[in-house]
Amino acid sequence: MEALRSQDPSRIGPHTLLARLGADGMGQVFLARSPGGRQVAIKVIRDDFADSPEALLRFRREVETLRAVRSAYTANLVDASLDSAPYWLATEYVPGPTLVQAVGSRGAFPAGTCFRLFAALAEALAEVHTYGVTHRDLKPHNIILSPVGPQLIDFGIARGAEQTALTQVGQAPGTPGYTAPEVITHNRVSGAADVFALGATMAAAATGRRPYGEGSMESVTYRVVHGEIDLDGVEPGLAELIRACVARDPSDRPEPSGIIERCAVTSSLADDPWYQPVTAPPDGAAAAPHDLETAMAAGLVPPGHGYVPTLAPMAQAAPSRPPSARSRRTRWLVAVGVLAALGLTAGAVIRLLPDGSGGDGERGGRAGAAPADGKAKDPAAPSGSASPGEEGGTGTAKAPAYIETIEPSRDYWTPAADGPVPGAGTCNLPAKERNEHFQTSIADVDDPEAETVSGKGKISFRLKFADPSLGKPYYVSVAVKPPHEIDKDTGRPFEGLVQQNLDLGYTSKPVDVFAGDASEFVDLTYPDDFRQFVRGKPYSDAIPLANDPGDWTVTFQHVQEPKKYASIACSGFTVR
Fold it and tell me: pTM of this prediction?
């Protein structure tokens, strides 16, 4: 449970806010009190997602599904506002950790508890399917373990049973490792796909490990389609049932009713002696407040704070020191309460240029981090001479001084199997603008020949030929995206809730390539020349590479305005 911040509203609709509960990929979640005194969890969609038709569609679908499905295994919808920003929905507040948090803190569940949980979740799926709805994203993150049993959350991509195909070609719903093979290969979604996800979820509960192993999205997806689920050490009867649920042929998977029968439980999960302590808050943790007076006494509501439209969930001041043990306990309670009802989840690569010059920018290259006037640069400022919001900069009276995320970014880079250098690989999406003369280079600062990037990365770009048809000025900003969504408080992926990064990433100050010789390299250093912006203001400095090992994505953006830009190239590098 976290205190409200000055930018938070005091009320949302008729509901009085009492505390922050946490955030998911789409919005901030608050604990609130309804006019009649009921505790509710309110999710407010992020401002930067509010202009995205795709995000709004998902949010509206979540509201519609919660409105349609009334079950003991789902948090019921209390209220919603979908007519104008800020968009929000309120559901009943249900305390308890997510399954992924419980496994993280307690380890693998014993077989007897797994069978009871298996049966309860199968019953939950059966009820949801009765309403003609497939969940499509069942996973440990989307299951709340309440004192009375599990609850399914995050119906943002749920669909009616008759809607078996996606509207966007090439994108499979769900989460790698929990998405059924037929969904990955043919976009065929049915109740059987939910059963597959249930089997994978129970494998994670029974082993304490990811069901199809670690690695990139592509490698996990490959193992789902062609490999075997990890059930090493699982009790044989339980392992057999899980294997039946994750059978490659959907017709070979049992119905939820058949799962319940095979579990053959004789007592409820709520009475399980191992399960009961799982749902209890940590020792010494305060109970969620029921009213404003209690919330103010607990320091969760600052005195006299007023309404400001809700900012993105990451818009908060950076901590001056690592979170204390007490703050970590508080963070556990964030997920404890909420997430409850809401689901709180190729450019050209060069090493030696055609003209024989190196890609390291040493021959007269322009350092993008250096001001044009030669004055010393503020180390806290991004590359270039103009600061956010200032007029000036090379080439125009109002040079763009930054860019920020305007919609979910789905660019992801995958390294080549035998790629000898950073940048050798492919991106999943094509560039939005064509620039056949644009060239890029990525290398480790300390070891340019290394196959991975460690301490700092050197990112360079140029125009091989100064094509006049591009128009002048021609501003380019580089966006460097970690593989996972980052918790600003820690500078690392969210604890217990590792999700793919849908932000643009940390960006450099836009540079006009025609300000000098366009064929000379502009050199940038990550993390020194990168930071993140929210609502036109610096929000976060770039995190160290070591904070999020994996495959990082680098996109090169042609910038016209801070919120008007388009990708012209995509590359990346691996951090180990």
Answer: 0.53
Check residue 87 and report its DSSP letter: P
Dmax (CA) for the chain in angstroms is 78
Tokens found for residue 134: 């497939």
477-531: pLDDT as tens digits: 999 999 988 888 889 987 765 677 888 999 999 999 999 888 889 999 999 999 9
Catalytic residue (one of 8, 137, 154, 523) = 137
Burial class (CB in 10 A: 0-12, 13-18, 19+), 482: buried
> Which is more confident, 7 or 197?
197
- How do residues 275-297 score in pLDDT, each as one tens digit? 999 988 766 566 788 888 888 88
Q: What is the mean pLDDT of the chain?
A: 78
Element (H, E) at 122: helix 111-130
Q: What are phi and psi of 261, to 5 degrees?
A: -65, -40
User: What is the arithmetic mean of pLDDT over 236-257?
Assistant: 97
Residue type, 35: P
Domains plus CATH for the chain?
11-45+55-70+80-95+281-330 (3.30.200.20), 99-277 (1.10.510.10), 366-575 (no CATH)
Residues 6 or more apart whose Cβ sits within 8 Å of residue 174? 136, 137, 139, 157, 180, 183, 193, 197
**Active site annotation includes 137:** yes
Cβ neighbour number for residue 478 with a 10 Å cutoff: 30
